[in-house]
């Protein structure tokens, strides 16, 4: 009989044996309340954290169910202090409540008077809270977000029941299909995600994060949330291409008119009932010491709902602005709650807890995502570059490894192997991409490409006129290229797990032929790039994707043999 698959350590690290017969079931269960930190071949390392436990509580998990499962699945007895700690974290979720008060003030309440009395004496809380003669704690409504931030830093998340402003009423309906056509229908999980966001009634429903894979239709979930509220909405997203994509989707899926949907970017400043803006425009300022030029957009459209697309990328200034608009409903959309800056607690306190999540593999099994084959190709450095690498400082080594000229042969072999496919070549460094675009005659899209040209190239790719595109990191986010089925990643952002998830997501839309997607990550062997590659794969490993590791020489030789046979 097999031993259980877990080892729970005193530092709240959970080790999961990957070759255990129950590995997949254990992985899926752990993902509900723990964070994956490392994924070596044989053992994956998870960590129990306050935010992971609070998100589990928000999703309706039962603490005794979690504890019982951990005890049953652990190979060795769990130290009682670990179980006590996760019980305490779970107890703290909702222990503090923020309720409406009077005269522009809110009340801070708790069933545990001792905890409340201790917290209001802490300097960061005392500066925001007033204690009345009867002991009631209250705060100015404008300090709502700031207090929630302060308390989550102290380990006490607030159950915010202070209610929301409605915003201007915006009546609209889903667009009706033309006679004889199948029309548009929400998928069951999209309906469930929008319903989960609104669950809890008028005072609690309407803030939180929906986690769905790229290609699963997060935009449609956002529109469904808008439809339930029927209110003016501000959508924030990553770039101008994504802004226009959102506008197209809203106009395609609803009966809203073009005059009711506006773009607020560097090119146009339209404030309309549905306004779609970029994070960049909100964080624009004329000089380093100047105020942010457009942060007042939050207050200029009578918005009752703010949608944060790709919420894991939310910039710090927008966090600060979000702290001041807690009276508006807030929906975060993302493929991963991983933040490389460690500000997951800020997303939790200011946008809201995780309200809905669906594993990538489950959507794949249901046919909503293409099955994916992930391959890491290890490319050796030539002797001259290896000497440069050995003599360089740590930061310079990253670029030397990324620019490895032997990657050219691998890209060429993969392009030949996928001659009939729709291929994206994605990378971090402009000079590297310009070189590859020249060598292989690939159209190139970077941050310097004018938006009109980007739109033209994306449209040509979608139409099948261009079978291949080379894109910089602007291709990571919110671009709709449903027919792409191969991605070749030639370089990336250090060990960014969120970027790996985004890039794989570019090729996960289901294909007409039902075939799999292929995702190749090229890393220079025995360098820091290979180390970063292991970190980048963490999120996809957690979602159930396995990486095959191949040597560049074998792949190039196979490509050459295939070319001769052709």
Question: What would you note in describing this structure?
Answer:
The chain has 566 residues and is of the alpha/beta class. The chain has four domains: 6-92, no CATH class; 102-160; 188-358, Rossmann fold; 364-565, Rossmann fold (3-Layer(aba) Sandwich). The chain is 39% helix and 19% strand. It has 24 helices and 23 strands. The strands form four sheets. The protein has a seven-stranded parallel β-sheet with strand order 12-13-11-14-15-10-16. A seven-stranded parallel β-sheet has the order 19-20-18-21-22-17-23, with helices on both faces. A hairpin with a 4-residue loop joins β1 (6-8) and β2. The chain is globular, with a radius of gyration of 25 Å.
The count of strands amounts to: 23
Q: Report the top-level CATH class of the largest domain.
A: Alpha Beta
What portion of the residues fall into strands of 2 or more residues?
A: 15-25%
Strand order within the widest beta sheet = 12-13-11-14-15-10-16
Cα radius of gyration in angstroms: 25 Å
Amount of helix: 25-40%
How many helical stretches?
Answer: 24
> Architecture of the largest domain in CATH?
3-Layer(aba) Sandwich
Q: How far apart lie the N and C ends?
A: 51 Å
Mean pLDDT: 86
- Name of the CATH superfamily of the largest domain: P-loop containing nucleotide triphosphate hydrolases
CATH topology tier name of the largest domain: Rossmann fold
**Shape category:** globular
- Which structural category fits the helices and strands? alpha/beta
Described by strand count, sense and barrel closure, the largest sheet is: 7 strands, parallel
């Amino acid at each position: 009989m097999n031993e259980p698959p877990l080892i729970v350590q005193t530092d709240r690290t959970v080790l999961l044996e990957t070759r255990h017969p129950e590995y997949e079931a254990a992985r899926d269960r752990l993902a509900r309340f723990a964070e994956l930190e490392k994924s070596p071949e044989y053992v994956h390392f998870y960590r129990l954290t306050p935010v992971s436990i609070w998100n589990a509580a928000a999703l309706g998990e039962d603490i005794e169910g979690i504890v019982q499962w951990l005890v049953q699945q652990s190979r060795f007895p769990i130290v009682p202090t670990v179980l006590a700690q996760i019980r305490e974290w779970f107890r703290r979720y909702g222990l503090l409540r923020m309720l409406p008060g009077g005269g522009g003030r809110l009340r801070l309440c708790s069933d545990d008077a001792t905890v409340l009395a201790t917290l209001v004496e802490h300097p960061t809380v005392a500066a925001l809270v007033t204690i009345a003669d009867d002991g009631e704690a209250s705060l100015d409504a404008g300090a709502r977000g700031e207090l929630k931030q302060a308390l989550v830093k102290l380990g006490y998340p607030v159950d915010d029941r202070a209610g929301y402003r409605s915003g201007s009423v915006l009546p609209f309906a889903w667009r009706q299909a033309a006679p004889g056509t199948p029309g548009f229908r929400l998928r069951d999980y999209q309906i469930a995600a929008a319903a989960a966001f609104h669950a809890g009634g008028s005072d609690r429903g309407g803030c939180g994060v929906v986690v769905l894979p790229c290609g699963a239709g997060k935009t449609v979930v956002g529109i469904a949330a808008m439809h339930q509220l029927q209110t003016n909405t501000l959508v924030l997203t990553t770039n101008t291409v994504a802004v226009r994509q959102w506008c197209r989707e809203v106009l395609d899926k609803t009966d809203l008119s073009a005059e009711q949907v506006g773009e607020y970017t560097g090119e146009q400043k339209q404030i309309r009932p549905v306004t779609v803006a970029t994070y960049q425009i909100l964080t624009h300022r004329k000089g380093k010491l100047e105020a942010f030029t457009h942060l007042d957009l939050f207050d200029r459209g009578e918005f009752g709902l703010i949608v944060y697309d790709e919420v894991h990328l939310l910039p710090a200034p927008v966090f600060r602005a979000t702290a001041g608009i807690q009276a508006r409903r807030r929906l975060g959309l993302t493929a991963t709650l991983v933040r490389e800056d460690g500000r997951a607690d800020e997303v939790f306190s200011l946008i809201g807890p995780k309200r809905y999540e669906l594993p990538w593999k489950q959507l794949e099994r249901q046919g909503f995502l293409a099955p994916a084959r992930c391959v890491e190709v290890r490319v050796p450095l030539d002797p001259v570059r290896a000497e440069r690498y050995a003599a360089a400082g740590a930061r310079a080594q990253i670029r030397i490894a990324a620019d490895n000229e032997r990657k050219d042969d691998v890209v060429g072999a993969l392009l030949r192997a996928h001659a009939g496919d729709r291929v994206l070549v994605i990378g971090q460094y402009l000079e590297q991409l310009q070189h590859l675009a020249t060598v292989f005659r690939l159209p190139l899209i970077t941050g310097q490409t004018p938006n009109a040209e980007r739109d033209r190239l994306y449209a040509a790719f979608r139409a099948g006129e261009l079978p291949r595109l080379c894109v910089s990191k602007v291709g990571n986010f919110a671009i709709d290229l449903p027919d792409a089925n191969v991605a070749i990643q030639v370089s990336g952002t250090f060990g960014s797990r969120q970027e790996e998830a985004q890039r794989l997501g570019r090729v996960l839309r289901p294909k007409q032929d039902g075939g799999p997607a292929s995702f190749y990550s090229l890393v220079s062997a025995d360098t820091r790039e290979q180390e970063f590659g292991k970190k980048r794969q963490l999120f996809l490993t957690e979602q159930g994707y396995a990486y095959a590791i191949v040597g560049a020489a074998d792949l190039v030789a196979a490509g050459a043999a295939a070319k001769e046979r052709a």
